[in-house]
């Protein structure tokens, strides 16, 4: 009877320890980089800082933010895609901040990075998840501003 209780206690403790260690390994692997919406938010902050330092002119491309020291190169890659190149789409390209509307999309996830939609960054700095049907048209000049919801 004592031996079976001992084995039962060891089994329960082993299950608890493996559950804790396993869950930590799982979350560490999947949270190695911030999700896309947080990366787009960081890109928005970097664009705002760049614009303030350059008399209202937005950077010509996202790589300019890295070369100017406003952003780390890893923040230009969606965590759901492979490879080390920057892959967020950017629509601000050298425009002035006065020409960019608050509800205008200035950056977005790469097409195909997410199965059911994608994140976008607005001119005023907020991010939003769009479902696939809405996200497919992001980047086309006629669909840049979103209608009020």
Give me the strand/helix succession.
HHHEEEEH
Placed side by side, the strands forming the largest sheet appear as 1-2-3-4
Q: What would the average pLDDT be, to the nearest integer?
A: 76
**β content, as a range?**
5-15%
Helical residue percent band: 25-40%
When the domains are counted, the total is: 2
The dominant shape is elongated
Distance between the termini: 67 Å
Q: Main beta sheet, described?
A: 4 strands, antiparallel
Number of DSSP E strands: 4
Contiguous low-pLDDT stretches (5 residues minimum) are 23-34, 140-149
Structural class: alpha+beta
Please, how many helices? 4
Radius of gyration: 22 Å
Q: What's the quick description here?
A:
The chain has 149 residues and is α+β, with helices and mostly antiparallel strands. It is built from 4 helices and 4 strands; from the N terminus they run H-H-H-E-E-E-E-H.
Description of the molecule:
The protein has 149 residues and is an alpha+beta fold. The protein has two domains: 1-32; 35-143. It contains four helices and four strands; from the N terminus they run αααββββα. It has helices at residues 2-30, 36-53, 62-67, 132-135, and strands at 89-90, 105-108, 117-122, 127-131. It has a four-stranded antiparallel sheet with strand order 1-2-3-4. It is elongated and about 80 Å long. The chain starts with a helix and ends in a 14-residue tail after the last helix. The model is unreliable at 23-34 and 140-149 (pLDDT under 50).
């Amino acid at each position: 009877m004592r031996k079976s209780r001992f084995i039962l206690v060891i089994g329960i403790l082993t299950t608890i320890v493996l559950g804790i260690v396993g869950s930590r390994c799982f979350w560490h692997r999947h949270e190695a980089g911030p999700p896309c919406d947080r990366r787009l938010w960081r890109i928005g902050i970097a664009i705002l800082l760049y614009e303030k330092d350059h008399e209202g002119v937005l950077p010509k491309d996202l790589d300019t933010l890295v070369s100017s020291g406003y952003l780390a190169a890893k923040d230009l890659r969606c965590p759901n895609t492979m490879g080390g190149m920057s892959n967020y789409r950017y629509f601000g390209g050298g425009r002035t901040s006065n020409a960019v509307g608050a509800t205008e999309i200035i950056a977005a996830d790469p097409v195909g990075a997410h199965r059911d939609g994608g994140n976008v960054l607005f001119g005023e700095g907020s991010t939003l998840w769009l479902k696939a049907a809405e996200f497919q048209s992001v980047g086309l000049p006629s669909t840049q501003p979103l209608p009020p919801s």
